[in-house]
Amino acid sequence: MVRNVGLNVDTIRLSGSLKNLRKELELLRSLEINLAEIPPAGLHFIFGGKLVFSKLKEVLEVIRDFPFEYTIHMPDPVNFAINREEDFEIASAVVEFAKIIDAKVIVYHCGSQPGIEGFDLEVQRLSLLADIIGDKNIFIGIENLDHDIEWTLNICKNVGKEKVKLTIDVGHLFLHCNGDVSKFIEQLELGLPYAVEIHFHDNFGKPANLCWKDIGEKIWFAYLYGVGDLHLPLGMGVLPLEITFELINKYFDGYVVIEINDLNRFQEDIANSIRLIRKNCFCG
């Protein structure tokens, strides 16, 4: 069951501005959405790995005007698979923020890769972070980047704590499968029963590294060629939506966040993505 459908608040769009935060949350309200994914890196209340409470108070004053449900996206560079103490300090500050706003999920980008050291360290630190959450009803969702679901699920199972689950980014997964629908379905069937959140956006199943570098790394060219992690509204790419919705209804219990980063191009298309999910998924 889909417990709620929301939209990401993008780090770059915020750029540290409380005015922009309010504008983003007003957009959600206008779309009749009451779930927002907040990126602490886009705001201005963590400095040097520590919460700055005077700045946090200003952020909370805005958020409290919008009694939504919230999830949080851990800053992208935080990587528990490398021995960098600052990462855990930042993550701990994010957990404290999550407790204050009663967030449902903290999304963490998986840092380790098969064949590279760091798996055990990542498991250890995720376990410690779950301990910091304690008895709060907050989950950590390990998000796949360029990973098989087997890998992120293995991390989840090795942590072995109820609060640590998966965030399945279906756009990333479709790219990782090179647009192979059969493999994509297999991966979803494997991971969805263990997921607490889904990131939903569309693309053409063509990884950026399969094309010329000057195209894949520049989003305005990538749109033209249909390559890479485009974060398109649903239906603008070739993601197999019908079977994805079927598998969500069969296996999933959690939150869905639509990730659209480019509002200049796609703000008018968000409502249709929301409509598609609400029409095709069992929503609580």
UniProtKB/TrEMBL annotation:
InterPro entries: IolE/XylAMocC-like, Xyl_isomerase-like_sf, Xyl_isomerase-like_TIM-brl
Gene3D superfamilies (UniProt xref): Divalent-metal-dependent TIM barrel enzymes
GO molecular function, one term: isomerase activity
Pfam families membership: AP_endonuc_2
UniProt key word DNA damage: no
Domain Xylose isomerase-like TIM barrel, first and last residues per copy: 26-278
Record's keyword terms, sorted: Isomerase
Transcription regulation recorded as keyword: no
SUPFAM superfamilies registered for this protein in UniProt: Xylose isomerase-like
Entry protein name: Xylose isomerase domain-containing protein TIM barrel
Lineage, opening ranks: Bacteria, Thermotogati, Thermotogota, Thermotogae, Thermotogales
